[in-house]
Write a structure and sequence with these properties.
About 35% of the residues lie in helices and about 20% in strands. The chain is an alpha/beta fold. The protein has one domain: TIM Barrel (Alpha-Beta Barrel). The chain has an 8-stranded parallel β-sheet with strand order 1-8-7-6-5-4-3-2. The model has no long low-confidence stretch (mean pLDDT about 95). Bound molecules: D-xylitol-5-phosphate and zinc ion. The site of zinc ion has 6 residues, from strand 2.
Length: about 220
């Protein structure tokens, strides 16, 4: 499968969100990456239901919702109602991760689990076969525009091994500090989905930047 590109709305122009949504619609991007932060799980607050609902009104591609919140289970239904297609929860935020994943799936949505940079992929051994997606944070969550953590490349390889061992068919998504210079290595290491905020929205030509990220060839 060719890899997917998910521009992160966190870096969009909130005073003219419609324009950036149309830009993503007209580009080769595959998903909208939507970062929800509660000011508790991460030291930042982003946006919530009303904004996502408006994004959904115009978005012509799936909404990939990344929940950086505690007790996410309380809100799965509401995220579905405002248009989430994929919901990912943090391993570190879920006491009963298996239950959380099943709840997301029971709503008919794709379910993902997210690992912070410090967390070993080995903690996913008993859940990775149940998820549609594993998101590896390549920065500490909370802010766009941070520096990519190189250790992520090794984690992708370890995750691939774990997935083979457990028969998991999850997609591997990488989130944080993705740029043209590390995207090639990420794809070659086995990443299936690249999130990009600053790299896309900080570019003079975001549509062209998305095309460049999308057109990286797999295999060395
Ligand atoms: C960070 C968010 C990321 C962020 C990525 O907590 O989860 O999705 O928006 O932004 P960049 O690509 O600028 O690091
Ligand atoms: Zn994110």
């Amino acid at each position: 499968m060719p890899h997917l590109i998910a521009p992160s709305i966190l870096s969009a122009d909130f005073s003219n969100l419609r324009k950036d949504i149309e830009m993503i619609n007209s580009s080769e991007a595959d998903w909208f990456h939507i970062d929800v932060m509660d000011g508790v799980f991460v030291p930042n607050i982003s946006f919530g239901f009303p904004v996502i609902k408006q994004i959904k009104k115009y978005a012509k591609k799936p909404l990939d919702v990344h929940l950086m919140i505690i007790e996410p289970d309380r809100y799965f239904e509401r995220f579905k109602d405002v248009g989430a297609d994929i919901i990912s929860v943090h391993y570190e935020a879920c006491k009963h991760l298996h239950r959380s994943i099943q709840s997301i799936k029971s709503l008919g949505l794709k379910a993902g689990v997210v690992l912070n940079p410090h967390a070993s992929v080995s903690v996913l051994e008993d859940i990775v076969a149940d998820v549609d997606l594993v998101m590896l944070m390549s920065v500490n969550p909370g802010f766009g525009g941070q520096k990519f953590i190189e250790n992520t490349l090794i984690k992708i390889k370890r995750l691939k091994e774990l997935m083979q061992k457990t028969g998991s068919e999850a997609l591997i998504e990488v989130d944080g500090g993705v740029s043209l210079s590390n995207a090639v290595d990420l794809i070659h290491s086995g990443a299936d989905v690249l999130v990009a905020g600053n790299t896309v929205f900080g570019s003079d030509d975001p549509v062209d930047m998305i095309a460049k990220l999308k057109n990286i060839k797999a295999g060395k």
